[in-house]
Amino acid sequence: MMKKWLPSEGIQATDELMDIIICDKSILVLAGAGAGKTELLAQKANYLFFTGKCVWPKRILSLTFKTEAQLNIKERVNKRCGVKSARFDSFTFHAFCKSIVDRFKNVLPETERPINNYDIVFRKNEARGNYKILMDDLVVLAIKILKSRNDIRDAFKNSYAYVFIDEFQDTTDSQYELLKLLFKDTDTNILTVGDIYQSIMLWAGAKPTVSNDFLVDFIATNKFLLKNYRASKEIQDVLKITLQYIKDDTNPINGFSTQPENCSVHIFADEFQEASFIVGNVRDVIATGVSEGDICILTKQLSSQYTRILRAELSKAGINNLDMNDLQDALKEPLGKLFSLYLKALFFPEPKVMTELYEINLALNKIEVGDEKEEELTKKIVNFITLNKNLVTVDTTVDELLSYIQSFVHFLGIQKIKGRWKQYKSSEYYNLIWRSLELHLRDMCSQSSTIEAAIILFNAENSVQIMNVHKCKGLEYHSVYFIGLEDQAFWNYENEPFENNCAIYVALSRAKEKLCITYTKRREHRINQWHDNRSSTYKVLRSIFDLFLNKCKFLLINHTK
To answer: Residue 474: left if φ>0, alpha if ψ -120 to 50, beta else—which one?
Structure first.
């Protein structure tokens, strides 16, 4: 008799959630913003392990696109499934392909076979023969291996009873081909989760028809997870109306009957007027108790140019702010986490920080909590941190600080770090992340009057976050300022209305409580030797403005009058 299963405490067993969890076939889940996609995967894994539907020694394979998501899902499954999570393999697509190449590369012709300890590079012009491999070519090599050997394909289908894929709408042609090679026409059930209305990665090679292809190729069923647990009621209603517009269904859009209190559109004469208003508004939001880190400024693209004047004004007003476009990925890398935790240990050694470092050190040394060697390892790391902490003074330079971090990484063990996080076996990749973190630390130290203030800024925990829409998926903020809703920022709108509408939807769906949209009549940075686009228009985006003002009833404030 199958055991009775219930979701973890605190998780609502809604009909739509349970319908997905107990479904025993391949599924395409279309999820809305804030619906809890990661928690769905953790609960599904818990269900499969608890009920025995994933029979030992069968495993679950989870594939994601970002390291952060891969770690997040694994951590959530560990929490929900306990020891059974040992049968849950969490990879990014690239890391999964690298594991195939590393294990079976001898299948490849010698001319195509990567050498041992090859480097991974990220630009085509850096690729060199079989010792510097382009990241995207790992997928190509993995496909060649799988096509050449049925027994290798069989090993995967026999190992994995279930496969989870997050952000499925971002899957490329080659990634989808890999999925079909391994699991099409097998007994493996595939659970794909994504939001087709957030399909903003088509520019990066995502397969536009992947959802429909999956439904046909894997005889999958379509299910929905739409309840938003993140946003206020009025933001949820805005998203619902916007989603109906994007779907372009034949039913008339029913707009708001009353004006939402925290959703507005603002028109400015220039960027200085825009910056002045936003700085004042951000200051008012902070005064209500909202932290800087819970405020986000979004642009469609080119955030460094669109926010240059605004950032200067925020800094003048004493409001910390960070452009997260290049920094975000580095901070969320395991190396970024080590960097961050060690700086905190030196300057703000709270119990939570120290515990995290102890746990990482134990994991790197493959020592379980309670093992007789635990005490010895803990003493060593405490002594090391204490020694370095005693060296730090108000006069410590950024170069000295970096040398302390470097020594800590060597204390933990470079080879152990590379063994745990395989991406660092590429010295090129390791150095790329290190350089990003080093430059960020140097920048924060140059901006701050004290080293403690620089460390707080380094961790981006107390700063207004600034980024392009493409970087904000999965994030959430109390207040969102979406600046530059102008034809010139959405220059390809007429050719790609669906993708651009999805980008707008993603921007809106980051807000939990407050949403400000700006239109500025003139932006000085939009000029080059070919075009003068400094004057803004809204001819192409008129239908979007009509949607916000007439259907969503946003408050319109014209600051030019």
So the answer is: left
Q: Which helix (H) or strand (E) holds 120?
A: strand 119-121
Query: Are the beta carbons of 176 and 205 closer than 8 angstroms?
Result: no
Residues 6+ apart with CB under 8 A from 449: none
Place of tokens 């026999």: 158
- Show the CA angle centred on residue 313, arms to residues 482 and 464, nearest 5°: 50
What residue type is assigned to position 357 of the chain?
Answer: L
Rounded (5°) CA angle 346-352-357 = 60
In the numeric block, the tokens 């495993």 are attached to 59
Strand arrangement, sheet containing 160-166: 88-92, 59-64, 160-166, 189-194, 27-31, 221-225
- For residues 175 and 95, the answer to whether their CB atoms sit within 8 Å is no
Amino acid at site 89: D
Q: Amino acid identity, residue 498?
A: F
| Spatial separation of the C-alpha atoms in residues 285 and 43, rounded to whole Å | 36
Give mean pLDDT in consecutive 10-residue pieces for the chain, a chain of 561 residues.
69 80 88 75 91 91 83 86 90 91 91 86 79 87 93 93 88 91 94 67 57 87 73 82 73 72 91 91 91 87 85 83 72 82 82 80 76 78 82 81 86 82 77 85 79 75 81 80 90 81 84 91 84 85 88 88 79
| Dist CA 314 CA 324 (whole Å) | 15
**How many Cβ atoms sit within 10 Å of the Cβ of residue 22?**
12
Cα 505 from Cα 244, distance rounded (Å): 11
In 3D space, the residue among 172, 162, 179 whose CA is nearest the CA of residue 96 turns out to be 179
Count, residues in the chain = 561
Please provide the distance, in angstroms rounded to a whole number, between the alpha carbons at the two ends of the chain: 73
How far is 265 from 533, CA to CA, in rounded Å? 22
